[in-house]
Amino acid sequence: MKPYIRTGLIASAIAFLLTSGIAYTAWTALPETGSIPIHWGPDGQPDQFAEKSDAWVYLLILPGTVLLTGLLLALVPQIDPRKRNIETGRRAYLATWIGVLLLYTFLQGGIALGMLGTGSETVYSGTMVRLVIAACGALFIVIGNYLPKTRSSFIFGVRTPWTLSSDIAWEKTHRLAGPLFMAAGALGMVGAFLFSGIWLALQLTVLIVSAALISAIYSYFAWRKASDREAGTGLTI
Questions:
Q1: Which range marks the domain in which residue 164 is found?
Q2: Is 174 a member of any domain?
Q3: Residue 178 located in a structural domain
Q4: How many domains does the chain have?
Q5: What is the pTM of this model?
Q6: Element (H, E) at 37
Q7: What DSSP string describes 113-169?
Q8: At what angle do helices 125-146 and 167-191 cross, to 10 degrees?
Q9: CA–CA dist 200, 221 (Å, integer)
Q10: Which terminus of the chain has fewer Cβ atoms in its 10 Å neighbourhood, N or C?
């Protein structure tokens, strides 16, 4: 097993234990009767409720997601046809892996606090939603920082027909995509504390989609000028 895969699996195990521990602690603290919030709108106010007998399912979603994510990310480098390139860019792969786990753990803590109603009006209502969005922005800053260090892969990075057929197009595209994603993440973090309502939830999505779209379009033009682009063999069957 590759060292970076082992590190990722250890981090996944820790995140699984943490999210499971948060779920158990929250479950034991929930009231036996009454409606428990299980979903919150963009303004941080609960908009769906359930009894304790049903609420436990929502506390187990993220531990299950952590487990599935860890297993999937450990498997991907084994099945990617360009697994050696993932090995070369292992720092980016591992940083993204751990960053996602941290986000899941933070989100699990927010869900538990929301269910328990801790500081429902003054602390949780809008602040936790803003903090989660800001944490997502921070994750994209981390991803953007490492994107220029990646190599061509079918799983990780800006994957277009042009970046996958030219190493030069891949490198140029990711040199652009890295700063774009970092800027989108930074602006999203700022926007998490400036916007309200539906724009609070949408602003980061708009920024990230814009960064991805610009990168994808640019990859075509980078490929057009690349000396290693594949022109095909000309063979027919």
A1: 3-224
A2: yes
A3: yes
A4: 1
A5: 0.85
A6: strand 36-40
A7: HHHHTTTIIIIIHHHHHHHHHHHHHHHHHHHHHHGGG----SSSS---TTTTT-HHH
A8: 160
A9: 34
A10: C
59 alpha carbon, distance to own chain's centre: 19
The pLDDT, as a whole number, for residue 13 is 97
pLDDT tens, 121-143?
A: 444 556 778 888 999 999 999 99
Q: What is the DSSP letter of 235?
A: -
Six token digits for residue 94: 């591992």
Percent of the chain whose predicted confidence (pLDDT) is above 70:
92
Residue 28 in domain = yes
The answer to whether residue 233 is domain-embedded is no
**Res 161: pLDDT:** 93
Residues 173-188: pLDDT tens digits? 999 999 999 999 999 9
Tell which residue, 78, 76, 37, has the closest CA to residue 55: 37
